[in-house]
Amino acid sequence: MRKILIIGATSAIAQATAKLFAEKHHALFLVGRDADKLETIAADLKVRGAHQVDYTALDLNEFDKHDSMLEQANTSLEGLDTILIAHGILDDQKAGEQDYTKAEQALRTNFLSVVSLLTPIANRFEKQRYGCIAVISSVAGDRGRQSNYIYATAKGALTIFLQGLRNRLQSANICVLTIKPGFVDTPMTANFKKGALWAKPEAIARGIYRAIENRKNTVYLPGFWWLIMMIIRHIPEPIFKRMKL
Amino acid sequence: MPNSYQSWGRFPKVSQNVHPVRWRKKPLTLPDTNSVLPYGLGRSYGDVCLNDGGTLLATRNLNHFIDFDKETGLLRCEAGVSLAEILELCLPQGWFLPTTPGTKFVTVGGAIANDVHGKNHHRAGTYGRHILQFELLRSNGERLLCTPTSNEQYYAATISGLGLTGLITWAEIQLKRVYHRAMHSESIQFTDLEEFFDISAQSEQDYEYTMAWVDCSSQNAGRGIFFCGNHITEEEIPAKWQTPSRTHTMPFDLPGFVLNQWSVSAFNWAYYKKQRQKSIKKLTDYDPFFYPLDAILQWNRLYGKQGFLQYQFVVPYEDHKIIKDILQTIAASGLSSFLAVLKTFGDLVSPGMLSFPRKGVTLALDFPIKGASTFELLERLDDMVREAKGVVYPCKDARLSARNFQAYYPQWTEFSKYIDPRFSSRFLRRVTE
Ligand SMILES: Cc1cc2nc3c(=O)[nH]c(=O)nc-3n(C[C@H](O)[C@H](O)[C@H](O)COP(=O)(O)OP(=O)(O)OC[C@H]3O[C@@H](n4cnc5c(N)ncnc54)[C@H](O)[C@@H]3O)c2cc1C
Ligand SMILES: NC(=O)c1ccc[n+]([C@@H]2O[C@H](COP(=O)([O-])OP(=O)(O)OC[C@H]3O[C@@H](n4cnc5c(N)ncnc54)[C@H](OP(=O)(O)O)[C@@H]3O)[C@@H](O)[C@H]2O)c1
Fold it and tell me: DSSP letter at A110?
């Protein structure tokens, strides 16, 4: 049985992943900023077979509370061996271009809060010498584009941070998994026009579950995004900068 | 997505806004002016799930379980949970749906709002009889806990309420004990309606589930195959069981001309002749037994882009002749239907105010839309049904006249007191104009 901490547990992708964990009777601790939603999810996961589900409500932008939240999760589950970090915001790029405080907010929530969370988690796992840290980054972080480069900056930074962390924790036998979803139909993207490239959160969840079980390093989900992003990464900058992406 | 938020018959085509409801404890966000209507999985054939010019409250994200008691089979879940999801969770633990329609891809809220029936109507009555309580969220923010004894008018109006009384956020359902997914099934050929009624009377003694497929495309109208089944008992649990898993998706719309009088007759002939013995008994998995059509996802595309109509009515039991007359009227019209389903309803009364099932014989038919003649035929059938003191099923309807609806359901004036002022549907506007 795994002892799993899910941060950003109200996210559609996190919920779908938690269901898979619940069906396998793992123990879960959920963190999100809305107690009503967490209570709803916790009850559902219990019915679906989770060994244990507890939760606490916390706005993850309150970095100074990260330590105590972690302590609470650790106490509740009597140890931790799997972490899934899923929270994120996708704000209007145009607004961020006009107003630095908006851009800063996107960087804080999508990147800095994860660094703040992973600092104590990494130290704890490094000591205990087992565990898996799975974090949802994004294909967006693979290359900056005019339509969403503030969000992409945060995700790109996150991807590099995780690379470094993976390298550091390798010798402690800790798996660090970078999850890079493509377009997923969730509340975050509710206002986007959907097309053939769009995936359901359940499909992404199955990929995350498999990647955790197989101790993968990086996964593109669905897998074809690996090819799309390889092409996008290799377009020469003089051409790329002229493209309307 | 282009396919979503239509009705199952894909007629009529309408345009409407969609607003997903994600959390049952949060207040409803309503549009400023236009009306709203809950939408589950859109398995209603007609327009009870459509709201042209208005907004649909899409409920599929209300898909959380709340509580399940393995000892008593009492399940509480949100209204957007599908029957397929309930079976997936509960069947391995020995519990089955108290009754189920012919597809498992419907939501709990949709099943309540149409007060659906299944092959065991003669034993279990409608779905609404097994709903012990639910929460109704009204547009003014009020949350009514509805049971047979509290807010009982809203309980009665919402079961079979066609989504018009408010949003059901969660419901509590009494499931039924079973021991395995295997079923005893029997299929029996019959050559005419007399034989159907004989077999039906006999089978209802022996079997919990009964229904028949009937040919109504040819001069042989009235012949068919009777299907019945029981869940196996604890002693009969097989040592090994192969669970069927493959589903297919209908990948494109079939051109309209493919389904015509000749192809449908040929299909019906082949279907009837496939069974070579008078009666076949075997063990069957519950999935193909209850949900043969679910094996082909999006089978409604068989009817092409223009969509199709489905027609279901019930007439009092005594009157075999009206069924015969109707079958003959259809056969004579040359507007063939395949997959006509015939079944008898028992006398268990539903708590639902506008509930369709009642003691009698029910027939359900599909019609490809072949212009005005299809609508004229159905108008004629409406009148025949009314004269026989029968009623037509709103859940399947997209074209019934206001006059006939109000004649079938005189209680609708009482019902309309409980309609939420911000809720409406294309169906409501059509039958109350
Ligand atoms: C292959 C097939 C076989 C079928 N067999 C049968 C059968 O044997 N017996 C039978 O009775 N029916 C049968 N049906 C019809 C089907 O069971 C009903 O149409 C069912 O109500 C569909 O549920 P849904 O979730 O798709 O609801 P929708 O079709 O989306 O909506 C149905 C109605 O429910 C309302 N509604 C939905 N959710 C809520 C909510 N949360 N609160 C309030 N109102 C709500 C909607 O406003 C609408 O009026 C069959 C349909 C198909 C496609
Ligand atoms: N959807 C996509 O196309 C896509 C693609 C690539 C990557 N991703 C990434 O996938 C992850 C999950 O997103 P999703 O698609 O599942 O969308 P989602 O359902 O909108 O999830 C985002 C979640 O983040 C939570 N959150 C945001 N700020 C928070 C804060 N300060 N404190 C606590 N929780 C906070 C939100 O909580 P509330 O519920 O309280 O609002 C919400 O549950 C995100 O990291 C996202 O960047 C998504």
Answer: I
